[in-house]
Structure to design on (294 residues):
């Protein structure tokens, strides 16, 4: 049996490039913060360093998910990707809270900001994050793990943009309140999107029905096959992003042609609903009365 490749694994190269770009710029931003005396640049470097860790975690989880199934883990390590997405969401929520608290502190006591070089370094960081976002965008639509990584780069991009705006305004006008105001906007922007990511990751871990699967339509499609008189104990869940599984009990009018029926049902589920793992139990009428139904 083939081991389905997760959505994150299909976009592993994008993760590696993003880690290299972000990791290199952390060094540049730390040096820039030290040389210019800019607290904003140092804070943004810390923000980006946290996100490099998140990207590395996403890559590690993708590699782990490629491991084959074992007797101890019969579905392999697919869920490592979802755990990574959940960890990233928790870190981002904590980071957003920190940004809001720090923005309030800076509003009460705005620090001196060196404008010129801070603007240059911030602009380079903005460019780096825009490139990383473009690289990760396609995978973020398919994988919760990559979506978490994409949101982290998005938060980096917004943070770099805030640095650029704060540096430009401070450099041109000397007004010091731009940095805390823009930082608060970043924190408020990140929170709802991160909450959605966390909710989706928890939904997978709790084995909820995938959002892209219409359970009623699936039941109707199975019931419509000739020879099927009933469906019960139908369950659909995600092993990881892009890899769904299902199980169901199928009540058959006759078990004489069960191999043909089983083949038709499998093909219908895989072709119409793109479910990778399909487990069907065929049973004669009346057998369901001895079972517990969900």
């Amino acid at each position: 049996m083939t081991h389905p490749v997760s959505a994150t694994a299909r976009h592993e190269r994008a993760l590696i490039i993003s880690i290299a770009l972000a990791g290199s710029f952390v060094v540049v931003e730390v040096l820039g913060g030290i040389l210019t005396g800019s607290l904003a640049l140092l804070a943004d470097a810390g923000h980006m360093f946290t996100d490099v860790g998140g990207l590395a975690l996403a890559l590690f989880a993708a590699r782990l998910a490629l491991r084959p199934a074992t007797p101890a883990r019969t579905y392999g390590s697919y869920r490592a990707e979802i755990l990574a997405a959940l960890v990233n969401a928790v870190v981002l929520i904590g980071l957003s809270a920190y940004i809001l608290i720090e923005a309030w502190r800076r509003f009460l006591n705005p620090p001196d900001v060196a404008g010129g070089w801070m603007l240059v370094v911030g602009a380079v960081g903005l460019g780096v994050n825009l490139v990383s976002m473009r690289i990760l965008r396609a995978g973020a639509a398919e994988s919760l793990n990559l979506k978490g990584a994409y949101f982290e780069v998005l938060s980096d991009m917004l943070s770099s943009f805030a640095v650029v705006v704060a540096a430009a305004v401070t450099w041109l006008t000397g007004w010091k309140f731009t940095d805390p105001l823009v930082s608060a906007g970043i924190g408020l922007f990140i929170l709802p999107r991160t909450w959605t990511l966390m909710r989706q990751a928890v939904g997978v871990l709790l084995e909820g029905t995938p959002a892209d699967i219409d359970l009623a339509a699936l039941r109707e499609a199975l019931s419509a096959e000739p020879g099927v008189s009933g469906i019960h104990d139908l369950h659909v869940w995600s092993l990881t992003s892009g890899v769904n599984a299902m199980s169901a009990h199928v009540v058959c009018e006759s078990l004489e042609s069960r191999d043909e029926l089983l083949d038709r049902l499998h093909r219908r589920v895989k072709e119409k609903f793109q479910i990778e793992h399909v487990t069907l139990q065929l049973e004669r009428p009346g057998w369901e009365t001895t079972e517990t139904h969900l």
